[in-house]
Write a structure and sequence with these properties.
heterodimer, A: about 100 residues, alpha+beta, 4 helices, about 40% helix, B: about 400 residues, alpha/beta, Sulfate adenylyltransferase, Rossmann fold, 2 domains, seven-stranded mixed β-sheet, six-stranded parallel β-sheet, globular
Chain lengths: ~100, ~400
């Protein structure tokens, strides 16, 4: 059985869309809510716990969406920078390592 | 057998508010005991009858019965212990003993008298286990229970000094008698209550509209819980003003919608808190109460619909639970759709209050089908006016003190 994954939603505003488009990665985002686009960074349960421990105001919406919400905007910006650099959404491990 | 279906709960609206002309004399010479915000709010709720049939903080017999059987010792259904805690040192310092009458102060001013009828210890672990179904310290209700001091003081409470509810909350302050009179003036006989601690998104709006249909109600009472806040919550001003904005912007007609506030510190007790919400809203004069998914829950402690099922195990409470499933956005239906009706389950785009908060936190304006633009504008206005630029609770918002009410000098 594959491990259950939880996602971090990076909601796409105009600034973020421009960055994605300039990198040729606009198609990486997807419509998840009435036309609102998002980049979804997957995390394992252990990574989810590490994010929640590091950012106590964040929460995992286990009831409805299985997503980690309410991370600070600066964290989302850093995750997006990593996505652009690696051209992949699998950046959770590298981001957590960068926190030391 | 007691009549649990009587409205107010117990058949009589409890009102223990002293004539202001007598108040000064009443508290003269009494020992003054300062209390924290939670206890002040509970004194007010007892005195105005939000908690009918309670006339004071619970005795040991009531606590034990509530904890173990979800009823008061009298037999009336009650699900959450309402207790006044003190440390052994405080009891010694004030020389407190059964038979004393003391004055409870908040913000350094007299609020209420407490007639000391019993001083007792209770097993807090057992209380937590029964009420919350867990002793996990991560559960905020368990933490609140463990934080109670050594002893509980049971006894009647009488308000000697009514709180001044500050703007913008003052326009929403209706104690039960005043609210019941307001319902009667408007000719509302069937009113369905909406419990909330959130700014409304379209899922909430349709939950309310669906419940109104389902109950064939005259009106909806939106009754936000205003109490202790945690960092990251919406600020109270945003919660209550955005709900009112839904009506002002025409998403509900003026004659079917009203907003009033409830001073209460959420316990996150899931199904037990649902029962508590139903009883309090019955005391306000409501005949129906809506319960969506994960009502009053936190984390994964309760099954999604535990708060629906608990009512099957209880006698008629005199307030009908309107149980609803999930509302989602469906790209095929091109609108908000209901789980039991929409056949595009695999394409459903689910959303929650946390997800919407996350969108706003990211500096993104949610789509108007999900979050009304008028609501978004009020959220942003409240951020500027009350939240130091943030619509969410921050350290600086918390440090501002209690902006909701002031206890004036007597």
């Amino acid at each position: 059985m594959s491990e259950e994954l939880f996602r971090i939603n990076i909601w796409i505003n105009e600034d973020r869309y421009e960055k994605l488009r300039d990198a040729g990665l606009a198609e990486m985002s997807k419509d998840v809510l009435a036309g609102l686009r998002v980049i979804q960074v997957p995390t394992t349960a252990a990574q989810r716990d590490a994010f929640l421990a590091r950012f106590p105001n964040a929460k995992c919406d286990t009831a409805t969406t299985k997503t980690i919400e309410l991370l600070p905007r600066a964290v989302k910006d850093s995750l997006l920078d990593l996505v652009l650099k690696k051209r992949s959404v699998d950046v959770a491990a590298e981001y957590l390592e960068s926190l030391g | 057998m007691v009549g649990n279906s009587l409205s107010p709960h117990g058949g009589e609206l409890i009102e223990r508010v002293i004539d202001p002309a007598r108040a000064q004399k009443e508290v003269q010479g009494l020992t003054r005991i300062p209390i924290r915000g939670q206890l002040a709010r509970e004194c007010i709720n007892i005195a105005y009858g939000f908690f009918s049939p309670l006339e004071g903080f619970m005795s040991k017999a009531d606590v034990d019965s509530v904890v173990k059987s979800m009823t008061l010792a009298s037999g009336y259904v009650w699900s959450i212990p309402i207790v006044f805690d003190m440390s052994d040192a405080e009891i010694r310092e004030y020389g407190l003993k059964v038979g004393d009458v003391v004055v409870l102060t908040y913000q350094d001013n007299p609020l209420a008298t407490l007639e000391v009828e019993e001083i007792f210890a209770y097993d807090k672990e057992s209380m937590a286990k029964h009420v919350y179904g867990t002793t996990d310290d991560k559960h905020p209700g368990v933490r609140r229970t463990r934080a109670y001091k050594d002893k509980f003081v049971g006894g009647s409470v009488t308000l000697v000094n009514p709180p001044k509810i500050n703007p913008p909350f003052d326009q929403f302050w209706y104690p039960p008698r005043a609210l019941r009179e307001r319902f009667a003036q408007r000719g509302w006989k069937k009113v369905v209550a909406h419990q909330t601690r959130n700014v409304p998104h379209a899922g909430h709006e349709w939950l309310m509209k669906g419940a109104w249909f389902s109950a064939n109600a005259d009106a909806i009472l939106v009754n936000p819980v205003i109490g202790e806040k945690r960092q990251g919550d919406y600020i109270d001003e945003a919660i209550i003003l955005t709900h009112d904005a839904l009506r002002k912007a025409g998403y509900f007609k003026e004659d079917i919608h009203m907003t009033s506030l409830l001073l209460w510190d959420m316990r996150y007790a899931g199904p037990r808190e649902a029962v508590f919400h139903a009883i309090v809203r019955k005391n306000l004069g409501c005949t129906h109460h809506m319960f969506g998914r994960d009502h009053a829950g936190v984390g994964t402690y309760y099954d999604t619909y535990a708060a629906h099922r608990i009512f099957n195990e209880l006698p008629d409470l005199g307030i009908y639970p309107v149980k609803t499933l999930e509302w989602w956005y469906c790209p095929e239906c091109a609108g908000i759709a209901y789980e039991e009706q929409c056949g595009h389950t695999e394409k459903a785009q689910k959303f929650s209050g946390s997800l919407i908060r996350s969108i706003i936190e990211d500096g993104v304006k949610p789509p108007r089908l999900i979050f009304r633009p008028e609501v978004f504008d009020i959220v942003m206005e409240c951020a500027e006016k009350y939240g130091n630029g943030s619509p969410f609770v921050t350290e600086s918002y918390l440090q501002r003190g209690d902006p909701v009410m002031t206890i004036p000098p007597l």
